[in-house]
Amino acid sequence: MKYLVILCDGMADEPLEELGGKTPLEAARTASMDRLAAGSEIGMVRTVPEGMAPGSDTANLSVIGYDPEKYYSGRSPLEALSIGAEMGPDDVSFRCNLVTLSEEQEAYEDRVILDHSSGEISTEEAAELVQALKEGLGREGYTFYVGTSYRHLLIQRNGKVVDLTAPHDILTKRIGEYLPKDPVLKEMMVRSYEILKDHPVNIRRRAEGKNPANSAWFWGAGTRPALTSFEEKNGVKGAMISAVDLLKGIAVGAGMHNIIVEGANGGLHTNYKGKGEAAVKALTEDGYDFVYVHIEAPDEMGHQGSAENKIQAIESIDREIIGPVSEALKEAGRDYRMLVLPDHPTPVRVRTHTSDPVPYMLYDSTDPKQGYAQYSEKTGRESGRLLEEGYRLIDHLLGK
């Protein structure tokens, strides 16, 4: 038996008036999901424990089978594992987003976050900006590391975990009351604007009609994590396919293999087809029993507040990953169990994460169920199934 998770980040949503009272998942054309739904178990699962912040960190830990209340030590340390940043037991890491702030205000505190991802800036452009931050903000005990797109890291030696605000939680809001209380972090953020606002990369981006990456934003502080081996824990050899350092870091911590797909960038126009093909190859040729395919695009479109683009992302996942993967495994004569779900909702209306339960669909090629006409939030709720401890869903997938 082969096992795979298709994790559609932030896919769950709310009914929208502009979609005739449907969610983006309900409005999307999802022939492959609907075909599987006809023979699947569908239900709801709470991936974010009560009292914890709804994020891809806590939620994906749950889906992979690690209780966030036991294993979570912060978001950025998981990303540090992915990019090979060195962390001692007393070090603290911070996510360093390159964000777009409004520029018409005179005081930094009066500016507004317009875009938490700087228009999904390319990694190549971002690397130039992070180098400028290294040169302009360098000080003993603090080290910048380049990540992917807008997502980068700052490591503090012998640091202290402090409360910080995620930029996607305060889009369009005045930033003054959300700045770090830590004076060093605050000073670095203020100075980053002066360093980046007229950098050649941003001058070029403005000329091209793109959002400038004109400030650093620190959040997601944490200490070095300690995950147990996924293979020892579950008895299956696992691999991760993701363009996002957070998921790659979880894989490193869990002893899973990271499969890199050319053209996978975490955006709307990622290489969906390549991810699906890599999953099939891993399961049919490379000796893996379990593959976790993570697709970031629906989450990013939710943060952008675009129902149209979120639908496009969902349809691309359905057409280029779920359909081809299920057909390829069938043609290869492999029995498989496929779990499709989001990690958390990222509603278009609020443009940030919520902690509501999400719908899951579990298909077993050897044991088709009397299923449903459609996989959706509504179907999940109407099924009457609700798994409160999300980290136990992996046991259900693996038939434990």
Quick description:
The chain has 400 residues and is α/β, with parallel strands linked by helices. It folds into 2 domains: 2-72 and 227-397, Alkaline Phosphatase, subunit A; 83-222, no CATH class.
Sum up the structure in keywords:
single chain, 400 residues, alpha/beta, Alkaline Phosphatase, subunit A, 5-stranded antiparallel beta sheet, 15 helices, 13 strands, 36% helix
Coarse structural class: alpha/beta
Read across the widest sheet, the strand sequence of neighbours is 9-8-10-1-11-12-2-13
From the spread of the alpha carbons, the general shape counts as: globular
Strand content: 15-25%
Just give the CATH class of the largest domain: Alpha Beta
Mean pLDDT: 96
Biggest β-sheet, characterized? Answer: 8 strands, mixed
Supply Rg. 21 Å
Assigned CATH architecture of the largest domain? 3-Layer(aba) Sandwich
- Ends distance: 13 Å
The CATH homologous superfamily of the largest domain = Alkaline Phosphatase, subunit A
* Helix/strand order, N-terminal first: EHHEHHHEEHEEHHEHEHEHEHHEEHEH
Query: Helix tally?
Result: 15
Kindly state the percentage of residues in helix: 25-40%
Stretches with pLDDT under 50, minimum 5 residues: none
Overall number of domains: 2
Question: Total number of β-strand segments?
Answer: 13
User: In the CATH scheme, what's the topology name of the largest domain?
Assistant: Alkaline Phosphatase, subunit A
